[in-house]
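Record now logged for everyone:
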Amino acid sequence: MAAQPVTARYSTLHNGSMAVVSLGMIVVAIAHFMTNPANAPTLSLNDPRFVLFFMLALAMLYYVVLGVSRVRNREPQVVIDHGGIRLGFGRNNHFTWDDIIWVRLRRLALRPQLEIGLADQAFISANLRLSMWSFDDSLRPVRGQPTTVLVRDNGLDTKSSAMLDAVRTFRPNLVKS
């Protein structure tokens, strides 16, 4: 029996909850200031409280938009099959098994994350646009390993351990402990 491909999509529950909670925080802050106008900041850029609450509201709106866009996006973000690993996340790169040197789980805080060690030329030609400073990107670089990609499963419907099991199914020789 042929092994089935493993796909990871954005989780509807996780990202929908993020959008609802973020919107709820904005609504609660507005309702609080409407019921207690004495505590409300003045609508002026000279009032630091207004600037603070305005910036926080923008940040929460960002997470509302991000959550809704991820809920609507049903495309697989990670696909592991007989041909290799395809990474979406706005980049849509496919790495064949020949491009991949090793794969392992790495703990980042409490959650295991999938690390993929790529061949130099595959990494360079992919132009993944990785950044250490992007907090919402599910693909990250690994400090000290220039051709390694870290796939965070936060907000995905498939855990990193299941993705590693899929790699074990298709290419057990690539799994590194």
Notes: Residues 48-72 form the longest helix (25 residues). The mean pLDDT is 93.
